[in-house]
Amino acid sequence: MTDHPNPAANAELVKKAARDAGFDLVGIAPATTPLTLGYFQDWLAADYHAGMAYLERREEAYTHPQHVLEGAHSVVMLAINYKQTPPGSSGKQPSTLPTAVPESATPAPPHNPARIASYALPPHDYHFTLKAKLQQVAEAIRTTWPACRTRTVVDTAPLLERDMARLAGLGWFGKNTLLINKRLGSFTFLGAVLTTAELSPDSPHETSHCGTCTRCLEACPTNAFPEPYVLDANRCISYWTIEHRGPIPPEMAAGIGNWLFGCDICQEVCPWNRKAPAALDHTMQGAFPAEGLDPLAMLTQTSEQFTQHFSSTALSRTGWNGLRRNAAVVLGNNRDERARHPLTELLTDADAGVRAAAAYALEQLDTQTT
Ligand code: SF4
Ligand code: SF4
Predict the structure, then answer these.
(1) Most buried of 2, 4, 5, 135 (most Cβ within 10 A)?
(2) Lowest mean pLDDT segment, chosen from 89-98, 147-156, 169-178, 185-194
(3) How far apart, in whole angstroms, are the C-alpha atoms of residue 161 and residue 188?
(4) CA dist., res. 240 & res. 322, Å (int)
């Protein structure tokens, strides 16, 4: 609760704080049971969450924002654009290339680049950059109404962020399951500030603008959409290359193609992203060459090099072993003969995921040469 008698004026103050913090979109949702809770529960029941058991463990907590912040009255939903400047354009590159750019992060030879999902290209993991901006908004709320409580969330708490974002008017759910905003498309990071302050909510985004388009569903190389608006993580490259620990099953490895970390295909093909502007915030622009990295360098890097070059980036999530595992898969899919010797050495690696990926990759090389 706030002492301020005017929830509409309260909302305007918070939105100004959000714009000052650098957010591209801001909207306010009431702290209510998410409207898509039933879909989420069905999705869990169908085991579409694959090995992400934490989602299931926290199922009850997702039922209401009160479980994230007791007494929550409003959920301020915020988004920031991270669409990358197309290679070759000028003027939108980071003002300084971060020191985290590894020596090994040289552009890959044209025939075998290893690709990284756009969200992981910035020099600093978005969880940290977004959190700092969210805290700025939370602080503005608490400074204005000292009796209020706040909690900031970036993927870190059981909150159905996309549901709340739609409720706050930020966009609609695309058939690729992502939140799409008419102006910015879907290359946006979402964050939330829950607060006990009374803020006038915005109108939900009720309409969908996918129409008859099915590009994302058709473009997915691993058929991860059993139907529109439903993603089966068991078949998604992003799940296997980022969330999954341990060996990647060979039947999934082939579909991974050149993706070293994540996958952007169902976003790249979306017409709403083609017309969206690139991120203005230079901290959202990539530290690595957008055309890809040399997967051989990713495979042979030491753990010290991995820590030195990637620990501040989103790529740290897989750990050293995860990135080497993924690099082996990419090299195998590329039938990259340069990797034969290092892959052979990795057959006895301490990590089971790396060993299995090396065996898979060598099999691909042999398939080529026999
Ligand atoms: S991220 Fe890639 S693999 Fe996953 S659903 Fe989208 S296109 Fe398919
Ligand atoms: S590609 Fe088409 S169907 Fe898929 S999210 Fe974009 S507009 Fe919707």
Answers:
(1) 2
(2) 89-98
(3) 12
(4) 10
3-class DSSP state of 233 = helix
Q: For residue 155, indicate whether it is catalytic.
A: yes
Question: Which two structure tokens, joined as six digits, stand for 114?
Answer: 């290893």
Tell me how far apart the alpha carbons of residues 327 and 102 are, in angstroms, rounded to a whole number.
Answer: 16
Is residue 359 packed enough to be buried (19+ CB in 10 Å), middle (13-18) or exposed (0-12)?
Answer: middle
Residues, the chain? 370
Beta bridge partners of 81: 188
222-260 pLDDT tens trace: 999 999 999 999 999 999 999 999 999 999 999 999 999
What residue's CA is closest to ligand 2, atom 4? 216
185: CB partners within 8 A, 6+ apart: 83, 267, 270, 272, 273, 274, 275, 276
3-state secondary structure of 28: strand
Instruction: Tell me which of 177, 216, 269, 273 to substitute to probe ligand 2's pocket, judged by most ligand atoms within 8 Å of the beta carbon.
Output: 216
Q: Which domains does the chain carry?
A: 7-83+124-195 (3.40.109), 115-122+212-369 (no CATH)
